[in-house]
Amino acid sequence: MATRSQVLERFLRYVKINTQSSEESQETPSTKCQWDLINLLKDELNALGMKDVSANGGGVLTAVLPSNLGPDGAKAPAIAFLAHVDTYHGTSGKDVKPQVIERYDGKDIPLSGSGKTLKVDENPELKSYVGQTIVTTDGTTLLGADDKAGVAEIMTFLEYMLQHPDVKHGKVKIAFTPDEEIGRGTASFPSIEEFGVHAAYTIDGSKEGEVENETFCADSATVILKGLDVHPGYAKGKMVNAVRAAAYLITLLPGEALPETTEGKQGYLHPLGIAGDVNKAEIQLLVRDFEMEGLARREVILDGLCARTRDTFPGLETEIKLSHSYKNMKYYLDSEPRAVSLAMKATELAGIKPELQSIRGGTDGSRLSEKGLPTPNLFAGGRNFHSVNEWVPVNALEKSVQVMVELTKLWAKERT
Fold it and tell me: Which CATH number do you get for residue 355?
């Protein structure tokens, strides 16, 4: 399958377009720069000959690859592939200068723009790609493989399918979403009924071969601490310092249940931000677990820590505000087991050993699955997401395209 040059060219072109989302913005998309890529992709989809190409006011871009199965086309389940156009807000995505390392020699890779080095001992997977082509950052920005690798792979898949009408397939829809990195990727997504597919796949994972059928259950917590400000010269026995109380509460968080001390299916409480003054302070936390019961337990722990803080700071008032983000997609994927089993088979047909994985995070598929559209996550190939050390092997970009082709062929043989 001669897709290597096409997918690499697209990827290198897309990553140079700044599409960072913003948590502070209340607009949708949260940043106007995301429209630069959305509009470019819209033009490219039309140029390819895709049908029903449309971007709604919230920045969700959709298009249709009609079935070529003839009269049987209506019987084959329609599927969709999704990727997000935005990049992580915490690391610069402006003026990305990708490095293409051809015939990688297995050594540490200098990141030319920063004096930094991508070290093999910190990235042992690099050893698997000796002699191959790798794309890295220059050390000053992220690369944007999360998720412009997925965007480039879907676009290359579409080009391949349109150029090979002999490959039989049912109806395939695609969707590119904004603001996934700030948890708003499906805010403007069409209704599941309107979107009209049986199963979907986010192309947003990491190592080639990964098929991810689980995500965290996720809540956000805001702890509000109310103190009492008094002139510091006359504060003895009177001041209740909310800043000190917030700092104390953070020290009480279980050290064995933080992001930096957990892995696999271990959940955590993550203090994400703190702001305030003597009168009032707020702590933003992420609450994560793979089970809803575990999520509830962690919230009970947080409530207990607030009680201990009140005991230590007499007169302090505390309040916890919780908001639900998403639920483990596995609760919903079990209703359509073919979504995962066919992805595993397609990965094998592409010459890769499939690995069923759990995501220590979430995707647009988490919310779409909860809404009734089974949406597991497939690999896009990138490593060290959100980091100036981000990199991707070109072979993974190509293999992702192959998996989508094989998966589309498999679904064409199924019936609703």
Answer: 3.40.630.10
